[in-house]
Amino acid sequence: MALITLNKLALPTGSVIQSVTTNFSTYKTTNSTSYVDLTLSNSITPISTSSKILLFANIQVNRNTASTQEVHFKVQRNSSDFQIFERATVGDGAANSHMLSVLDTTHNSTSQLTYDWYWKVRYSSDTARVNDGFTGNTSAYRMCTFTLQEIQG
Fold first, then answer.
1. Comparison of pLDDT for 127 and 91, the residue scoring more
2. pLDDT of residue 38
3. pLDDT at residue 106, as a whole number
4. Cα–Cα distances in Å, from 141 out to 41, 62, 111, 119, 121?
5. DSSP codes joined into one string, 73-120
6. Contact (Cβ atoms closer than 8 angstroms) between residue 115 and residue 41
7. How many other β-carbons are positioned within 10 Å of the β-carbon of residue 82?
8. Backbone angles phi, psi at 77, to 5 degrees
9. For a tag site, which of 40, 57, 101, 118 has the least CB within 10 Å?
């Protein structure tokens, strides 16, 4: 049986050309009020300058203070700020799953694109934790995922 190949550039607008997912299960904390590297990163090499890159990040975050706190996220593309998410509120007690997504329509490249996530808290008295199942329970790790999809433009 012959292998059938598709011309990826001939796909209809909105088609997924390629998809790349990475998982991150390391337990991390921050009480920084300036953005620090979350170590959640992924790369994709577009086949077309007119395609779009859809970013999906599912970030598992918790806190260790008795009240609700704000955790802020941003994503960089090739070391330059790309999108800032003003805040994600972390509630009292349980781990929270934050699904953050953004569509990159401005990459204009067929070279590798690397997207990196950064995070901070609003007040230095707060400590946010990533991949912690429940308050202080480091044996019940959760996992963040980060998916990049090239979309036909």
1. 127
2. 94
3. 94
4. 19, 11, 35, 19, 21
5. EEEEETTEEEEEEEEEEE-SSB-EEEEEEEEE-----SS-EEEEEEEE
6. yes
7. 19
8. -115, 120
9. 101
